[in-house]
Design goal:
Largest sheet: 8 strands, mixed
Number of strands: 22
Mean pLDDT: 88
CATH topology of the largest domain: TIM Barrel
Radius of gyration: 31 Å
Strand order of the largest sheet: 7-14-13-9-10-11-12-8
Shape: elongated
Distance between the termini: 72 Å
Low-confidence stretches: 1-6, 169-180
Structural class: alpha/beta
CATH superfamily of the largest domain: Phosphoenolpyruvate-binding domains
CATH architecture of the largest domain: Alpha-Beta Barrel
Bound molecules: phosphoenolpyruvate, magnesium ion
Oligomer: single chain
CATH class of the largest domain: Alpha Beta
Number of domains: 3
């Protein structure tokens, strides 16, 4: 076998292109391909194994091995050298294959004569769909160029095997890049619901629709323009952001810049296009190579640098003209977005008519993307490990965000079961809808206030359908997050006025801007913080940038002229913070009194209880506020010192832990003593069992996602609070990790529907 330069693979690619464009059924073409590879690479054997259901690699075509072993020789993933290449997803280059400990002899192939072996995985969408092998009699080591050439050829084979025409051909229907095999992933429910749609990868992936180029000169031009665009965008980014970057992120951008101009990287791309690959295939080829190198490297610094190269390949792809572009704001079919993780603002970027569900590899219930999704009624399943590796753009997906199940490319039986679940859910929703106009009165005649959390105009439009008493938490920051610039006072005023108009006198509690942490505004420059949840956020920003807080308060006061206004401040940690914020509000109210529009009739001002320190200053706070609202998401985060957005620990402590219940009781007790209204608006208010415990602790006012209202109402109507009170308060003395089981038993014994 001669060392292969650029010209040899080019020739081979051209011939493969002819085969691809030619006639013949799937198997004939594959046979032709292995024959071509063997003769061009001067190998005695070339074989193609494809992955079938049950993780089996089956010999589909061979030049050189005994023909009757085709469809007979099968290896499990990890078994033999072929299985090893597939399992590790990387090439194997052996001068004496038979002495390798993994070698598994298959007598039907007659391969005992061949000593050297070079094999490479056939990859599609990052998944191994087969293995391509060449073998020679002599004990020889294949050169790096030969390894690369075989990898390039494997991309062409991948294209052939996954092409629609081949998928349609029965003989390939159950290989087809595994893309036709059903796949099931379990995760955590972050926003309830059931949905059906087609997969859309949030982080764009390099899509190789064509591997071999038709016109090399044109492809080289495409590459050159994409590279120039990438280089200037990285340079610009660095210039524009230089002043606001931390040293660490500056390093990363510098590394980007270095790589974007790196001659070695660019040469590899050029060489790959020069051999006859399309730019997409060339980028993919070079990226696969980087990934393979990353797997071999243990040094964390080098790995990090390589991962930047990997990312740069994605960025280069983004600059390619003629690339398949998806317009998130104008989706054309029902879509299930799949991402590693996502910010709330990014979610709001999607076309809401067609966004049916979101699946995340990370995420927790308390993360803001989940909160926004619940507000939008978009089901979310989070913590779905490695889902991105198993999904292809456009896959049909069923999302069961009631049980945390995701089904990719489901079979008919699963689809039928799913549609039964959809019917059941519809029945449940109908049952909740029938409860809508019933008053919120417990079995023992205690009247409760059940409210919804809102933040989007959509919530307000649908408010009458919820059957809620009011809006217990209006997250004003969502309106800031959906814009590309800070909304002006007038814009804010008309927005808040619209909310009040639509609510027709029903109570609304506006919360002033709660940004920072995981809710960033693209136009508000902030430094990257080591601990954003403990950082410059919420009222801290408001007090440090009083103009920002003042403009919002001015807008709220104006919008409520001549009617009632209720508002609260987030993240108050000590009384002076509240007093400072209230002083700004009072000034605005006084100012409005002098203006033609006038001031609100009645202003009620409160705070969220989210930082544990304020609980110890409640007696002093309660003399100053009109009400408080417990933000259990943050309160729990700070109480247990667990990052609410970190799935690894966010469920380490239970929401029904006796220590947390004791804290809730303590807050309630202090408010009762001071005769100040109190409510709870964190996620737990929307969970029937948790809400039941809170009833027992004295809470009567709840605010939750609209989707949760029906089930909480059902629980409330079936509960006898007098019986609950003693029971739950006693549980506070428990030494257990959680009193969930005891509460469940209580509900069962007392026929409370949870
Ligand atoms: C909370 O912290 O409980 C809360 C309601 O606020 P957010 O979830 O918006 O931080
Ligand atoms: Mg909060």
């Amino acid at each position: 076998m001669s060392g292969l330069g650029i010209s040899a693979p080019r020739l081979l690619l051209r011939k493969l292109h002819q085969v691809m464009a030619g006639h013949g059924d799937a198997e004939q073409r594959l046979n032709e391909i292995v024959r071509l590879i063997a003769s061009n690479m001067i190998a005695e054997v070339c074989s193609c194994y494809l992955r079938r259901a049950g993780d089996v690699l089956e010999l589909y075509a061979t030049e050189g091995l005994k023909k009757n072993s085709v469809h007979q020789t099968r290896l499990r993933l990890g078994e033999g050298l072929v299985g090893d290449i597939a399992a590790r997803a990387r090439p194997l280059n052996l001068s004496d294959a038979q002495s390798h400990p993994q070698f598994a002899y298959r007598p039907e192939t007659g391969e005992e004569e061949y000593h050297s072996l070079l094999g490479t995985p056939i990859l599609r969408g990052g998944r191994v769909i087969g293995v391509l092998v060449v073998q020679n009699r002599t004990r020889r080591v294949y050169t790096d160029e030969e390894v690369e050439a075989l990898q390039t050829v494997a991309m062409v084979v991948a294209e052939l095997v996954s092409s629609e025409e081949m998928v349609a051909a029965t003989e390939f229907s159950d290989t087809a890049g595994n893309a036709t095999l059903p796949h099931h992933v379990s995760g955590k429910v972050l926003a309830e619901g059931l949905a059906v749609g087609y997969a859309l990868l949030h982080e764009p992936r390099i899509e190789v629709l064509r591997t071999i180029s038709e016109d090399r000169a044109k492809e080289l031009n495409r590459l050159n323009s994409a590279v120039s665009a990438l280089q200037s965008s990285v340079d610009k980014l660095l210039l524009a952001t230089n002043t606001m970057l931390t040293d660490e992120s500056k390093d990363i951008f510098e590394a980007y810049k270095m790589f974007a101009h790196d001659k070695g990287w660019l040469k590899k791309l050029h060489d790959a296009v020069a051999t006859g690959l399309t730019v997409e295939a060339a980028i993919k080829r070079v990226q696969d190579d980087t990934r393979a190198r990353m797997k071999e490297i243990n040094d964390p610094y080098l790995r990090e640098r390589l991962s930047e190269l990997d990312d740069l390949a994605n960025r280069l792809y983004m600059h390619l003209d003629g690339r398949v572009q998806i317009d998130r704001r104008n989706l054309t079919k029902d879509t299930v977005v799949i991402a590693a993780n996502m910010g709330a603002a990014e979610l709001l970027d999607y076309d809401r008519r067609h966004l049916k569900a979101v699946i995340l590899e990370a995420g927790t219930r308390a993360s803001h993307v989940a909160i926004v999704a619940r507000a939008l009624g978009v089901p979310v399943v989070g913590q779905c490990a490695s889902i991105r590796e198993n999904v292809e753009q456009g896959d049909f997906v069923l999302v069961d965000a009631e049980h945390g199940q995701v089904f990719l490319r489901p079979g008919e039986d699963v689809q039928e079961a799913f549609s039964r679940s959809q019917n059941q859910r519809a029945q449940r929703q109908a049952k909740y809808a029938a409860l809508r106009d019933k008053p919120n009165i417990s079995k023992d005649n205690v009247t409760l206030s059940l409210n919804v959390n809102a933040g989007l105009l959509l919530d307000i439009d649908h408010f009458p359908e919820f059957g809620a008493d009011g809006i217990g938490l209006f997250r004003t920051e969502l309106q800031f997050m959906v814009r590309s610039q800070m909304p002006k006072v007038d814009e804010q005023t008309s927005l808040y006025a619209r909310v009040l108009d639509k609510m027709e006198g029903k109570p609304v509690i506006f919360r002033t801007l709660d940004i920072g942490g995981d809710k960033m505004l693209p136009y508000l420059k902030t430094k990257t913080e080591e601990n954003p949840a403990l950082g410059w956020r919420a009222i801290r920003i408001g007090l440090d940038r009083p103009a920002l807080l003042r403009s919002q308060l001015r807008a709220l006061v104006r919008a409520a002229a001549g009617r009632d206004l209720s508002l609260m401040f987030p993240m108050i940690a000590e009384v002076p913070e509240f007093l400072e914020a209230k002083a700004i509000l009072n000034k605005e109210v006084d100012r409005a009194k002098q203006k033609p529009g006038g001031a609100p009739l009645n202003v009620k001002v409160g705070t969220m209880i989210e930082v544990p320190s304020i609980v110890w200053q409640l007696p002093q706070l309660l003399t100053e506020v009109d009400f408080i609202s417990v933000g259990s998401n943050d309160l729990m985060q700070f109480f247990f010192a667990v990052d609410r957005g970190n799935p690894k620990i966010s469920e380490r402590y239970d929401t029904l832990s006796p220590t947390l219940l004791t804290l809730f009781r303590n807050i309630a007790e202090q408010c009762e003593k001071a005769n100040k209204p109190f409510s709870i608006c964190g996620d737990i208010a929307g969970r029937p069992l948790e809400a039941m415990a809170l009833l027992g602790l004295g809470y009567r006012n709840f605010s939750m996602s609209s989707e949760a209202l029906g089930r909480v109402k059902e629980m409330v109507l079936s509960a006898d609070i007098s019986k609950l009170e003693n029971y739950v308060r006693n549980l506070c003395n428990s030494r257990d990790h959680s009193v969930r089981d005891q509460l469940r038993s209580f509900a069962r014994d007392h026929s409370i529907i949870i």
